[in-house]
Amino acid sequence: MSSPLLLNIAIALLRARLKQSIVAAAGVTFGIAMFISLVSFMTGLNKMLDSLIINRTPHIRIYNAIVPSKTQPVDLANEYMSYKNLVRSVKPKDEGKQIYNAARVIKAIRADERVIDAAPKTKTTVFFNKGTIQLSGMIEGVDVDLEQKLFHMEDYVIEGNINDLGTVSNSIIIGKGLGDKLMVKVGDVVQVITPDADIAMLKIVGIVQFGIAEVDDVQSFTSLPTAQKLQGKPASYITDIQVKLKDIALAPVVAREYAQLFDVDATDIQTANAQFETGTNVRNTIAYSVSITLLIVAGFGIYNILNMLIYEKMDAIAILKATGFSGRDVKTIFIQLSMVLGVVGGIIGIILGYVLSVIISKIPFVTEALPTIKTYPVNFDIMYYIIGISFALITTYLAGLFPARKAAKVDPVVIIRGK
């Protein structure tokens, strides 16, 4: 039989049991809508949490670690070279935190096609004095332009302007937690004491907040020249090189390569944030599992409704087969019936899922811990909509396939004789 005729019969059967058909389509609609809204919200939340770490973390950090010397004097003695020597209480070898030939290293890294850019940095622990208050903290000297280009630091400055670090001499941007403890604000001057007992007066030109209390309570930033002058170091003094790659997945390989090439220590972002990445993967797995379960449950609903429809329409099936419709035609009718439910429910589900996602994205989300976030984060990735409609069509096809095969095997003679 022709396909349009079979489709018309399928639609007629749906209209005959309109309430059940609406319930079946509603199950698909609800499943897809919840899948899209839940996955969009969960992945948006994960991206927001990841940004707190990843946006502020270089893909590769190059530095000089203070570690014990691998070669001890006893290992150099001829009479003990053939022995396995065990040395206790080995003191770390202080070769200094400076990266030697840092300018040449940065130039070589920037020439690498895998690299977006590399930013120099120097950091030191200090004491902040304000009246009778004295707190320990950390000052990072940064290249202001590169810091904004690679790490979007301006997004975290809640008061003042990061550009003032490059234009105002002896200036500093401090963490909000640190500023609250010192009871200072933008425009105030804070006294800083270095580990070498050098004292400097720095003007506060901004307040920064990352939403991580352990960071906001100790962190502060100044320009690279100011930090070098604060420590009494030359302009070539660099303790860290921060590298951003075009592909973050290459970080472990490139880090090992740079460590061997430049004879430095290098840490990749995956190693530095392994626990955080694990948490993200777990949350994504939970979101997908719950969402797909909703679609499967909707598929079982369609299966049950079609099963009941077959039993109720035995007379119609028998008449169809008695008037020349083959078992294959009957099977096609019920599969088309199921697919109509899937398509209609899927389209409405996509629209409803998008509407729910928009509503969630408009709900205010105000917290002092995350000053840059104003509403709940939602990820409007079109892939979730494609996955939702595809899974719905597959589920409804399978849900209609088994009842359709049962309908195709109906013997019209047995049904008519029974009547």
Summarize the structure.
The protein is α+β, with helices and mostly antiparallel strands. It contains 16 helices and 12 strands. A hairpin with a 5-residue loop joins β8 and β9 (199-208).
What does this structure look like?
The longest helix has 39 residues, at 274-312. The chain has helices at residues 3-16, 18-54, 73-76, 102-110, 144-151, 164-167, 176-182, 213-216, 224-230, 251-262, 269-272, 274-312, 314-322, 327-362, 382-408, 412-418, and strands at 60-63, 67-68, 92-93, 115-130, 133-142, 157-160, 171-175, 189-193, 199-208, 219-223, 240-245, 265-268. It is an alpha+beta fold. It folds into two domains: 3-54 and 276-418, no CATH class; 60-74 and 95-271, no CATH class. Helix 12 packs parallel to helix 15. The protein contains 16 helices and twelve strands. The mean pLDDT is 80. It is elongated. The two termini are 27 Å apart.
DSSP strand content: 15-25%
Shape: elongated
How many helix segments?
Answer: 16
Strand order of the largest sheet: 4-5-10-7-9-8
Computed over alpha carbons, the radius of gyration is: 33 Å
Kindly report the average pLDDT value.
80
Enumerate the spans where pLDDT stays under 50 for 5 or more consecutive residues.
none
Element order: H for helix, E for strand? HHEEHEHEEHEHEHEEHEHEHEHHHHHH
Derived from helix and strand composition plus strand pairing, the structural class reads alpha+beta
Number of domains: 2
Overall strand count: 12
Instruction: Sketch the major β-sheet.
Output: 6 strands, mixed, barrel
- Can you give the helix content as a percent range? 40-55%
N/C terminus separation: 27 Å
